[in-house]
Amino acid sequence: MGIPAWVWFTVAAVAGVAGFALLATDRAQRTARNRERRRWAALRGWQFEETDHVLPTRWESGAIAYYGAGVAKDVVAGSTFTADGRRQVYVLDHETSGKVNSVLVGVRCRRALSVVIELWLPSVPFQRDQMPDLLGPVGSRYAFVSELPAARKLITPDLVDAAEEIGGDVTVVWLEDDWVLAAAPPNSTPARLERLLRDLGELADVIDPFEADPEADAGGEVHRPQFGRKP
Fold first, then answer.
1. Are the beta carbons of 204 and 89 closer than 8 angstroms?
2. 12: number of CA atoms within 13 Å, CB side?
3. SS3 state of residue 16
4. CA distance 101 to 184
5. N or C: which end of the chain has fewer CB within 10 A?
6. What is the Rg, in whole angstroms, of the alpha carbon atoms belonging to the chain?
7. Contacts 24+ apart (CB under 8 A), 90-93
8. Tens digits of residue pLDDT in 118-168
9. At 227, phi and psi to the nearest 5?
10. Is the whole model's pTM more than 0.70, yes or no?
11. Is-contact 41 78, C-beta < 8 A?
């Protein structure tokens, strides 16, 4: 005995309503995050842009290598003080294939490193086609690096202590070029992101102490989010 047509119609209708509800919920959450991020940027006197196609292409490792360059959404750009002085910062929703996979937080150093260091939680399936070399455990994380000898010189007890403060909700912390970056959960609140910025600032102070001319530019050129423009 075949299934009546009205049953298939009912199933399709229910599925359609469920899909619409999920889409509406996702859109509402997205709008709420946008408003929250915008208010936070205004309180800090930072720049805010809804979309930036260029910014994620500045990095190639860590979460960018894992998920792909994607698009930056709800971008906050500014600077903050650390123990060693003012540093440039970015906060953005990292979106790939129409889905926000993480909130990327970056703190800029004054000098570029010659090695990439990725610190992954062991619970994350971090394997990808081209992984850096495995260095081994660094605190509660596993270190993957682009050059073993150079990385060993950088991974000091102070760096390990600073990385341990970042928290178990951050899947990966990585050092690339003149940036210290981390991937936080998509639902991270401004309060959580403030703490993460402080922790990344401490990590930046460890690897990039301010020993240069105090009159020098502390953050270099600030990237202007390119809303509505192609890279």
1. no
2. 5
3. helix
4. 9
5. N
6. 20
7. 90/55, 90/223, 91/37, 91/193, 91/197, 92/52, 92/55, 92/56, 93/33, 93/37, 93/186
8. 999 999 886 777 889 999 999 999 999 999 999 999 999 999 999 999 999
9. -60, 125
10. yes
11. yes
Dist CA 201 CA 180 (whole Å): 8
Cα dihedral 55, 60, 63, 68, rounded to 10, equals: 80
Alpha carbons 105 and 23: distance in angstroms, whole number = 27
Q: What type of residue is 17?
A: V
Mark 68-96 as b/e (b = at least 16 C-beta within 10 Å).
ebbbbbbbbbbbbebebeebbbbbbbbbb
At 37, is the secondary structure helix, strand, or coil? helix
Question: What's the rounded Cα separation, in Å, for the pair 173 and 209?
Answer: 19
Q: Distance between CA atoms of 41 and 20, rounded to whole angstroms?
A: 31
CA distance 138 to 118: 10
For residues 160 and 139, the answer to whether their CB atoms sit within 8 Å is: yes
Q: Could you give the 3-state DSSP secondary structure of residue 152? A: helix
With b for 16 or more beta-carbon neighbours within 10 A and e for fewer, the 105-133 pattern comes to bbbbbbeebebbbbbbbeeeebeeeeebe
